[in-house]
Amino acid sequence: MKIRTVGPILILCCAMLIAGCRKDDTKPENPDRRNLQEDKPLSSRALATELYELARMCYLWNYPWPDKKKFGLDSLFINEYAKVAALNNELEAIKALSPNKIDKWSSLDTGPDPLQPYYWVESGDHLYQSTFGLSVKRKINGTYYIASVNVSSPAANAGLRRGWEVISVGGLPVKGTAMKDVQSKFNVNGTLNLVIRNQTGYRSLSLVKAPYVYDPIPYSGIVDLVDEETKEREKIGYMIYDSFKGDEDNLEILDQQFISFKNNGIKKIIIDLRYNSGGSNQAAGRLLDNLAGARFEGQTSYSLKLNSILWGFSQITTSPWTLEQEAFLKARKAPDRVTSLYDYLKPLWSPIKFRNINTHIFEKICFIVSKETNSASLLVINSLKPYFDNNLIIVGQDTGTKNVTTVDFSLLPVEVRDERTYDVSLVVGYFSNVNRGIVDSERGITVDNNANVGDNPAFGFGPNEPCLERALNLLD
């Protein structure tokens, strides 16, 4: 039998990454309310028509496609709030076209709003605060704990650590307090005041808002296992990966993390995705290459199933309607993302193959997951299952159900974009995996037998944290 050596995990250094999308970004300042009532260069009807045309061509479930009148495109929106409400109603009508109305993922982003707070909730008991770089999680008994802290954030600079109990936020005692009331205290612009309790007692902390560089690998290390009888040692790699970031700097950091595992002779690895709700398919592919590229080079990792219009576009390149489509697609991507939908989808029209990028073979892989694990995280796990079989272990709690890919489009031309971005995220494809076919978008990933264990934020990250402890036992 093997036991874990006493002492902390050996921490592997990771460079910090540039901030990306969703829960990790620091929220910009809110615009003045009066600006929201001003007329925009693009009319309400033009915005609604653009959304209609985008969905008609790109939405995964686009047949049968109803007439424009169904979406009320002839209606006039009297002000900014009415415009946003009408566009949301149109999007809801589009989502209702999905089989059994399963689409929970397409959404409208209209940029900063004076009513939009500096937080948002990923799940019913987990509150993220991107401005200060931390999240808190509520246990069943109503006690709140620090669940995660981003490296170099104001929370990290103030010394916060996972596992510390939160006593009060902005003067409000939080034990037993409803989540919405705790949320309201996080909606601050300059300084966030906390009282926490750790092993040494109570502490009062003031977190000052400041820019920081987001790091999607906030914690990594090596757990040293020792056999009691033979004294033989085995090293297990461990890495928390909180978000899939697809820019080159972040992909390079991911590669460097795996080079470190390779240099330490790691054959068994634990990837902690419990707080990873998804991100870039490119980053998911890079993680797949690092985990399995050396062993399964050239074999299919996954493919993307599109609607018949986009799929036809991938097969025919000479007819006039295809050239018209290409012009349409090249002009319609949100700013600061991939330059066009055409460029984004073109690599995915053919099956994605494993690439050998670090010549290192892992024998066993364990994923830690939760109900917050979604999207690109599911893509990675489902793509590896056919290849690793019993050497792939799933620990934690059953995951979310987003086995589809979304693309962000801008409804506004580049020359008139302002703080009201009018970006829409649409489901454009299903993921398909080897020997599994199209993955059911209404089902997530189920954890293995004897591997169901909940996330307990009262424990810091380390070999005694319940999820990691179970993962180590199953890898042994």
UniProtKB/TrEMBL annotation:
<dbReference type="GO" id="GO:0008236">
    <property type="term" value="F:serine-type peptidase activity"/>
</dbReference>
<dbReference type="InterPro" id="IPR029045">
    <property type="entry name" value="ClpP/crotonase-like_dom_sf"/>
</dbReference>
<protein>
    <recommendedName>
        <fullName>Tail specific protease domain-containing protein</fullName>
    </recommendedName>
</protein>
<dbReference type="GO" id="GO:0004175">
    <property type="term" value="F:endopeptidase activity"/>
</dbReference>
<dbReference type="GO" id="GO:0030288">
    <property type="term" value="C:outer membrane-bounded periplasmic space"/>
</dbReference>
<dbReference type="GO" id="GO:0006508">
    <property type="term" value="P:proteolysis"/>
</dbReference>
<dbReference type="InterPro" id="IPR005151">
    <property type="entry name" value="Tail-specific_protease"/>
</dbReference>
<dbReference type="GO" id="GO:0007165">
    <property type="term" value="P:signal transduction"/>
</dbReference>
<feature type="domain" description="Tail specific protease">
    <location>
        <begin position="235"/>
        <end position="411"/>
    </location>
</feature>
<dbReference type="InterPro" id="IPR036034">
    <property type="entry name" value="PDZ_sf"/>
</dbReference>
<dbReference type="Pfam" id="PF03572">
    <property type="entry name" value="Peptidase_S41"/>
</dbReference>
